[in-house]
Design goal:
Elements lengths: L1 E11 L3 H7 L12 E10 L7 E3 L1 H11 L3 E4 L10 E15 L5 E12 L5 H8 L6 E12 L16 E2 L2 E2 L2 E14 L16 H29 L4 H7 L5 H18 L23
Parallel strand pairs: 3-10, 4-10
Antiparallel strand pairs: 1-2, 1-7, 2-6, 4-5, 5-6, 7-10, 8-9
Helix pairs in contact: 4-6
Length: 286
């Protein structure tokens, strides 16, 4: 699952310790006069405009993955579009601030550098002047967990942004897999951000559509197998299959498959090499 989320820029920093850290990524030793160093808020654990949030553990995982990540503009993956690089990250907890879920606010801060060169002068001035603040990060997570049922949100019946029994439905982004890049953009998705976190609606809708199609086909397959091996259960199962989650459907399909193998053991039509047998054909129906 590809995720793009937005964040915000922060104050400029420039110390000997920072130079030592960033020079780990430079081929030649860079001096303070040669680089522009700044910090950015990459992502946090609050619910954003897409009704998604990164879990605290996912933020820790992204901290490692984003170290060394390149900074570009508008998510245009071109080598000439590379303008900066993150050389270290820091996970910060603000105990005085709460998220929408009532948890202590936590965010991932990235420290980035770019070369002081004529082609970067305008961008540096725009950052300093507060024009270039908004960014977003491109990353991948393994799971998008529903806050209501705990299942994969693209497969469950709950809708992000709605309340169920007074509880808000949102997706918790879990198990970071990769961090592609971070980019300067015009409009981020994260409320507390300005430079980094925005979700791709096209990708989300595509993934959700595939999930709904897969779940629909799984329900049809379970009902088909039920007619084949346990016809007496079909009436009751047809009424309840729409309320079953993916895990229950898969378990039922596996049970029906096993029963079908027991009832309908495959019979070879050919006897095999150097064997002769009478063939009646009663086992085969057309």
């Amino acid at each position: 699952m590809k995720i793009i989320k937005g964040g915000a820029g922060a104050a400029t920093v420039n110390t000997a310790e920072e130079l030592t850290a960033l020079n780990a990524f430079a081929k030649t030793e860079l001096t303070a006069e040669e680089v522009y160093i700044f910090s950015v808020l990459l992502c946090d654990n609050d619910i954003d405009r897409d009704f998604e949030r990164f879990s605290n553990e996912t933020l820790r995982e992204l901290g490692e993955l984003f170290t060394g990540a390149t900074g570009i503009c508008d998510h245009q993956w071109k080598s000439e579009n590379q303008v900066a690089r993150i050389y270290r990250t820091e996970l910060i907890c603000d105990t005085e601030k709460k998220t929408l879920t009532g948890e202590p606010y936590m965010f991932l801060k990235g420290y980035a550098y770019m070369l002081r060169a004529p082609e970067n002068d305008l961008l540096i001035r725009e950052i300093e002047g507060g024009i270039k603040r908004e960014t977003s990060v491109g990353c991948a997570v393994a799971k998008s967990v529903c806050s209501i049922c705990g299942g994969e949100i693209s497969l469950c019946a709950h809708e992000r942004g709605r309340e169920y029994g007074g509880k808000l439905c949102y997706a918790s982004l879990e198990n970071a897999v990769d961090a592609y890049e971070w980019s300067f953009v015009a409009v981020p998705a994260q409320r507390n951000a300005g430079v980094m976190k925005a979700h791709s609606p096209e990708t989300a809708e595509f993934d959700a559509g595939l999930g709904r199609l897969w779940l629909s086909e799984l329900k049809k397959e379970v009902l088909r197998l039920c007619l084949t091996v346990e016809e007496g259960l079909y009436g009751a199962l047809k009424k309840s299959v729409d309320t079953m989650d993916a895990e229950a459907l898969i378990a039922m399909k596996d049970a029906f498959d096993k029963r079908a193998e027991e009832l309908f053991t495959p019979v070879p039509q050919l006897p095999g090499k150097n064997r002769v047998t009478d063939f009646v054909g009663d086992e085969y129906m057309i």
